[in-house]
Amino acid sequence: MSTSTHRIAVIGGGVAAHTLVKAYATASDAASDASDASDTTIDIFTTEPHAPYRRPEVNKGILLKGKTPADVALPAAPLETPGVTLHLSTPVTHIDTDARTLTAGGTTYQWDQLVIATGAGPRLLDPAETPWQAGRDVHYIRTPEHSTALRARLDELDAEDTVVVVGGGVLGLEAASAATTIGDAPVHVLEMADEVCSRMLPPAASQWLRERHAENRVSVTCGLDAAALAAEIDRLDPAVVVVSVGAVRDTMLAEDAGIAVGSGPGGGIIVDPAGRTSAPNVWAVGDCVEVHGVVDGVEVTVRPEDEGSARALGTIVGRQLGAGNDSGDAAGSYLEEQRRGWTNQYGLMLNTLGEAGLVEGRREQVELSSPEELVVYTVAPAADGSGDVVVGVTTVGRSPEVRAAKGAVGTVLTA
């Protein structure tokens, strides 16, 4: 094993950080010369008071089922490895890439390799631009504390009350599903786009979700501009408003340290497919990143925001650090990983594999659709002109047909 990496610092205590530490341990154990492995220290700094937990469970477990962070915690074993220290409730306030130091809790720590895994936070609406917030009980969902507070509030409501969810993405629809499951109040989802989950899903899958919500006392209104949305909220006069309008990647520390960050809304810490940032010996993983690379000769930018992506890039970086390899060679490429997503609503699990959303040049092909099952292929022209290739699959259900469809990504559909 290389002896150049002894002090690893990880900023962030989510899924990506946890996966990285686990992958590091596996790779270092497998290295040909592991005699110095015990000299390595890994310090993990997190602003949260909880050990790493599965962030999708903030909606799916804590809000919907009343679980606690301990109930949805990730396995403790990687964090109990000798040399690993988890610093809870310890925000990092400064990074110095030249001196290779960071400041946390008033203490300066040296590092040889730094991994930024700061994640993302909810996009907050400006009260000055959304006067309908004034005097209303407005909730955002990102942490266990958010979900616990919202669950308690929803449980207080009765059929005479109303809940409004602003935002028809996956998290917004999960919040709507939870609200109608927990309480008796009718729920209204208000979305500015023309369809729910339009970035993640093909239209047929979005429509399928809308139908399931309609069956469960949830109305969905799409295509609203800001004025129409405000008017609808005033008309409904909700007891509770849940806002779920996207996430903002936490890039502040990286920006302050001079590390390259993407421009525009949703921009993240720029990394290559191996997780390297613009600064030597600094990596980034999880929801805080945007990945720049080349696929089939075309430059691409991917802004991941799902647990599978956090695990994939965390594994790639952990393997490199564990093997003492900071070149990125033979470590794998995030852009070669098949993306996966899922959401559980009303007891039905919707899964996506590959590139399920529609963009220019893609179309959807519905293979199966019923209230309990769904198979939709997202297809694009094959590079060799032989037909359409399946680039994404959206499924619901567990029948043999549904399970078989999950293996269709990459299949060429000939005319």
From TrEMBL:
Keyword Flavoprotein: yes
SUPFAM superfamilies reported for this sequence: FAD/NAD(P)-binding domain
Any one Gene Ontology molecular-function term assigned to this protein's record: oxidoreductase activity, acting on NAD(P)H
Cofactor(s), by name: FAD
GO cellular component: cytoplasm
Coiled coil (residue ranges): none
Keyword Oxidoreductase set for record: yes
Transmembrane segments: none
UniProt entry keywords in alphabetical sequence: FAD, Flavoprotein, Oxidoreductase
Domain FAD/NAD(P)-binding residue range list: 7-292
Domain of life the protein comes from: Bacteria
Name used for this protein in its record: NAD(P)/FAD-dependent oxidoreductase
The organism of origin for this protein: Candidatus Corynebacterium faecigallinarum
